[in-house]
Every structure is written in C-alpha cells, then in structure tokens.
Amino acid sequence: MNRIIGFVFLIFIQSLGLKGQETLTVKEAVEIALENNYDIRLSKNNFLIAQENVSYGNAGMLPSVTGNFTQNNSLQNSTQVQATGDTRSLNNAKNNNMNYGVSIGWTIFDGLAMFSRYDQLKELEKQGDFQLKKVILMRVSDVIATYYTLVEQQNLLSAIDSSIIISKERLQTAENRFSIGKVSRLEVLNVQVNLNEDESNRLRQIDVVKNLKISLNSLLARDLTIDFAIVAEFDFDEGLQLAELLNQAKTQNPDLQIIALNKRIAELEVKNVRANRYPTVRLNTGYNFSESESSLGFVASSSSRGLTYGITASVNIFDGFNQRRNERVAKIQVDNADLMIGQQKLLVETSIATAYQTYQTNMALVVLEEKNEKIARQNLGITLEKYRIGTISTVEFRDAQENFISAVSRFNSAKLQAKLSEVAIKELIGQVAL
C-alpha cells in the first residue's frame, strides 16, 4: 500500500513541472501577452494615433501655406478683325500662360472654436490612454483566467493518473486472487472495465489540457504548438474589502474614466457649435509670378510679379434655424453623458458587489473542499488496505476511488472559481490580479 500511495503523490509532484518542458509562470505569461497580444498592440497604435492628433495645426490654429503652379498652352488658327477694319489671321498661333507663387491663409478668429477643438484633441488622447488600459486589463485577465483554468485541469489529470495507478494495482491483485481461486473471473473483468474507464477519462482530460494550452498560446500570440509546464499553485488576495474596492473603482475603473471624458468632450462640442454664431476672420497673402505669350494680339508677351494680401470675413446670418437646433442637440448630449456616468457607476458597483459576494462564497468553499479532499484521500488509503486483505468488495473500493477523484475535482474547481472571482474584481477596479 505504501508503494501505491507513493506513486499517487509522485504523480502530483510531476504535475508541477514535466521534464523536457519549459515552466511558464503566470507572471511570465502576462509579460509575453503585454508584448505580443494583437488586441493590446492594436490599442497601443490607436493611442499613438490619438497622441499624434494633438497638435495646433490639427486644431486649425496655424496658417496654411500653399504652393501654386499653372501652365496653359494653346495652338490655334486665329483670325482677328480690328476696329480699323483690318483683318489679321495666323495659323498655328501660340498662346502660353504660366502662373506660379505661394499663398498663405490664416484663420485668426473663428469664435474660439479652434481652442475648444484643441482641448477636445487632448481629451481624446486621454481617452485613448484609458482605452489602452482597458484592453490591457481585459486581455491580461483572459490570460490569468486561462492559465489557472489550465492549472485546475492539469491537477485533475494528475488525479486521474493516480487513479489509473491504483486501478492497475487492483487489476493485478484481482488476477492474483483469480489464479488461486479466491475470486471469480467476473471480478477481474469488472476491475478491467474500471481501468478502461479511467484510461478513457485520461484521454479526454489530456485533450482538455492540450486545448487550453493552445488557447493560452493564442492569447500570448505565439506558436500554438509550444508545449510548457505550469506552476500548479493558487495564491489568493485574502485582504479584499468591499468598501475599499468601491472607492478604488471610482478613480481607477477604465469605463468610468472613459465616460467622464465623454462628458468633457460633449461640453467642448457645445463650445464648438456656439462658435458658429460668431464671424470667421481669415488673413490671406501671397507672392505670385505671371507670364504670358501670344503670337497674335496686341500684346505679344507680358509678365508680372508681386505681393497680394487681403482679409476675408464671413458670418452666418440665417441657416434655417440649424444653428439653434445644433446647440440644443449638443446640450442634450451633455445631459446624456452625465446620465451615462451615473449608469456606469451603478453598473460597476453592482458588478463589484456581486463578484465580491461570489468571491467570499468561493473562498469558503475552498476551505471546505480542501478538508473533503484530505478526508477522501485518507479514505482511499484505508479502503486500499482493506481491499488488499480482502475485507471489502470491488464495488466498495471503486466508490472510494471515484469519491477521491470527485473530491479532488471539487477542490480544484473551488480554487479556480475563487481565483476567477478575484480576477474579475481586480479588473473592475483597474488592477491586475497576478
């Protein structure tokens, strides 16, 4: 019996790190995801775009400089009748006109809309930063959840492996008893069926573990065929307090931060719309060159160059009451943004309270199922000893064996659910639950 129990514990020890495989910790998995995950990389690029958009030129504060060049040529058969009655004609008469220069335009007043646009661009940059943080939290939470789900399923596989070792020992014992006439062939066949069932469960469990490894590799955006060992340990943050979590969420939850920025952007949009009530003043200047040639005409050629300058002002007098409508719509958008802040705050608080309650329940289940797992292990050892000396039946032993596997499964499931609840809480308050 001691040899068999030793084999059982050996299986669990081997599950912590398989030979020939690189051990991947949850921290390393998160670091790889931060570097490789496509959603995170795309969100980083979107944030870089938002950063690039914050400029005075994009807000319309800077002048625009344009280089112009125009060349027009014609070849015509022309006839001219002058005031004196003389007629002049020329075949293939050439006419060439060329203009080039530099134009500068600068809007110096547009109802202060350019300043509110610049502020909007800065708020959009902050929004991009919070969006990046949100994506990072979501993908990192996915990595952590997948990793610990893999830990749970790997531990269950180890329990099945230990059960197979015991089933093989049972089969050997049953065959020895059959050979000396102490049991019938039926008992041997029943034990063989149990062993085959364990082997079948093991194959299915191996498939679950391998698929989880593929899913984790996919989240890490690396070769899906990479095999690795895992650290089969759960660490819990047992210091979580609901009141503290709710306070942290107010300042760190990405969704609340994004919603608050949306209100600020809506308020700036009101200023943009109101700016249309004021005139727009634009300065224009430039330096232009002009040359022309004509084979037939009073002027054979001419050229000019010089500075041009002026000012343009325009104001909206009547646009079918669209200005008033746009202002009203902009104000309603501000009200909606304010309502969405309250709605999102309630949603976050509800989610945290629910996740916290689930976390407390799962932590209690971890303690309970750990005791049950120890009892089931002890019961299996005692039952194995009784089976070896022939004081219990095969059916009774199989019940103890299945109870052990069920207890291990429930214990691992309780640990996983507690960890997933912790991960969900940390994601809601804007933290990573390593």
From TrEMBL:
Keyword Transport recorded: yes
Protein's UniProt keywords contain Transport: yes
Q: A cellular component term (GO) from this record?
A: cell outer membrane
Please give the Gene Ontology molecular function terms for this protein: efflux transmembrane transporter activity; porin activity
Predominant location category: membrane
Which InterPro entries does this one have?
OMP_efflux, TolC-like
Q: Which domain of life is it from?
A: Bacteria
The UniProt keyword set, sorted, is:
Cell outer membrane, Membrane, Transmembrane, Transmembrane beta strand, Transport
Q: Where in the cell is it found?
A: Cell outer membrane
- Please name the Pfam families in this protein's record: OEP
Q: Kindly give the PANTHER family that the UniProt entry links to this protein.
A: OUTER MEMBRANE PROTEIN TOLC
Family listed: Belongs to the outer membrane factor (OMF) (TC 1.B.17) family.
What is the protein name given in its UniProt record?
TolC family protein
- Give the originating organism: Sphingobacterium olei
Classification lineage: Bacteria, Pseudomonadati, Bacteroidota, Sphingobacteriia, Sphingobacteriales
